[in-house]
Every structure is written in C-alpha cells, then in structure tokens.
Design brief:
103 residues; mainly alpha; Arc Repressor Mutant, subunit A; 58% helix
Length: 103
C-alpha cells in the first residue's frame, strides 16, 4: 500500500482539474445529491434540482469526463455516482464553509 501523500506536481494538477470541474453551482448541487453514496439517474437528479434534463446531462458529462463521477447502466437507465467516496468530504467541507458565512 502506497502511503506517500506528498503533493507532487502531478497530484496537484489532478486535484486542480477535479476542483475546476466541481466549481459550478449546479455541479456542487449534483454532487451534494450524490454525496451519501447514492446512485441516481439523470431524471432523478433533474427532478430533485428542478432544472432541465439537458442541463443536467451537460453537467453530468463534464463531471464524468473530468473523473469526478462514474456511471453504470442498468437496463434503460444510467446511474451516476461519485468515482471516489473521498470527494464527499469536499462537499461536506463546502456545506460547512457556507454555513459559517450565513452565521
């Protein structure tokens, strides 16, 4: 098991790409929905967030392309979920940070 946690140039670049992909209000909302180890379809996400299905698909595509999300097919449906469960800690941190600003 590799326990090296040094921030190499490659790791910093990968982290930067993930954060850039996440840096949009709708994408943060999508990730927030998925942060409890949930697997949701495009329809479930767009209905929960009350946004257009095409907009939802666009943002899911970006998150998947940048390695933040994965999907798996089950019949006619594709289910989206966090590629790495550690990403939920970033969402939790964002939630805590925004709670602090409202105090």
């Amino acid at each position: 098991m590799n326990t090296d946690t040094s921030l190499t140039t490659e790791r910093l670049q990968a982290a930067s790409q993930i954060l850039k992909a996440m840096a949009h209000p709708l994408r943060v909302a999508i990730l927030n929905l998925l942060s409890d180890n949930k697997k949701l379809t495009v329809t479930e996400i767009h209905e929960a967030l009350k946004i257009e299905q095409s907009t939802t698909s666009h943002h899911l595509g970006i998150l998947k392309d940048k390695g933040v999300l994965m999907s798996e097919r089950d019949g006619k449906h594709s289910y989206y979920f966090l590629k790495n469960n550690n990403l939920k800690h970033i969402i939790e941190c964002l939630n805590k940070c925004t709670d602090c600003n409202n105090s």
